[in-house]
Write a structure and sequence with these properties.
single chain, Rossmann fold, DNA polymerase, domain 1, 6-stranded parallel beta sheet, two-stranded antiparallel sheet, 8 strands, globular
Length: 214
């Protein structure tokens, strides 16, 4: 397996759904919109919020940007840490680092929040860089974020793999020529990952570790 590993964050390293869904609930309540059930709220975990707020709440792009400010008022004080690291992830990262793997983060979450989350859970030292969006940006495509990692690390796409749980991770990796590996323990289905062009799909952190150490 290749020595340069790019990880998504939400749904790949951390089970962040509780905090994200509670932040969306807070946003729905703020705007007086009908409250969605827990299963429906899963669709907000992973995709860029500006897109989800337009698609699921019926907002214009400008309204969605304003709603993100509301969302962040909850997320930055509570939701960010209503979160946990998946079982086995820290052991996996330790084994990968010991094996000489270089590791990076490419996430649609703001960089500043991602860094805080990684530091909070003691994972920051495993990663050479965290490439996310700025607080002023509404969104960036996953291929753009992956490209940022490649440029930072002076790597070619052929030298890297991208690990993620949603179609955006697979599609972004394929777009730039990085090998996409899907994980089903996050928030996307096997069918979603397969349709989006996953090269390989694993069902657990243990399977992922074994694959990456091959």
């Amino acid at each position: 397996m290749k020595n340069n590993i790019i990880f998504d964050l939400d749904g790949t390293l951390t089970e962040s759904g509780t905090g994200i869904k509670n932040s969306v609930r807070y946003t729905l309540q703020h705007y007086g919109l009908p409250m969605e059930d827990d299963e429906s709220l899963n669709r907000y975990v992973g995709p860029p919020l500006v897109n989800s707020f337009q698609e699921y709440m019926g907002f214009t792009e400008q309204q969605a940007m304003e709603a993100i400010v509301v969302y962040r008022s909850y997320f930055t004080t509570k939701g960010m840490f209503e979160n946990r690291v998946y079982d086995g992830v820290e052991d996996m990262l330790t084994a990968l680092k010991k094996a000489g793997k270089r590791m990076f983060i490419a996430t649609g979450k703001p960089t500043v929040y991602s860094q805080q989350i990684l530091e909070h859970f003691g994972l920051a030292s495993y990663f050479e860089c965290v490439c996310g969006i700025s607080l002023k940006e509404s969104t960036m495509e996953k291929d753009e974020l992956i490209t940022q990692v490649l440029e930072f690390a002076h790597l070619t796409p052929e030298e890297c793999v991208m690990i993620g749980d949603r179609k955006f991770d697979m599609m972004g990796a394929n777009k730039v020529g990085v090998t996409p590996i899907g994980v089903t323990y996050g928030y996307g289905s096997r069918e979603e990952l397969k349709t989006a062009g996953a090269h390989t799909i694993v069902d657990s952190v243990k399977q992922l570790q074994e694959l990456l150490l091959q």
